[in-house]
Design brief:
Layout: H1 2-19, H2 26-36, H3 66-70, H4 77-84, H5 98-110
Length: 116
């Protein structure tokens, strides 16, 4: 019984560590979003960014503004990591990794409206 408890604890610790992400910097994420993501998405809430960016060079769903993504019911940090690290036919072929990915996730989450 004690061995099973230790094995379970070790498994949880390993899995938790594997899922842990670097802490993101929303300001650095904003910079990455403006540089990379703004070609398709409106990334700056309330700052006059065109919510209807130039047409994409491929057929795709309409890209959501980051503010809408942040305020989607049920959106979580883990959901954003999963979405941004999974290939999607409607997104250009670029990869955010490591700190850059953490920063963009932190930036998107910083756009959440405060609950009243």
């Amino acid at each position: 019984m004690r061995t099973m408890a230790l094995l379970t604890a070790a498994s949880v610790a390993c899995c938790t560590g594997a899922l842990a992400q670097e802490t993101g910097d929303p300001e650095a994420g904003r910079t990455v979003a403006v540089d990379i993501c703004s070609a398709c998405h409106a990334v700056l809430a309330g700052e006059g960014v065109d919510p209807d960016p130039d047409p994409l060079p491929f057929e795709a769903l309409e890209p959501l503004p980051f503010e809408d993504i942040a305020n989607t019911p049920g959106i979580t940090e883990m959901a954003l990591y999963a979405w941004m690290t999974t290939s999607h036919p409607s997104m250009p072929n670029f990869v955010l990794e490591g700190q850059e990915l953490s920063d963009v996730v932190a930036y998107v989450l910083s756009l959440r409206e405060e609950e009243t």
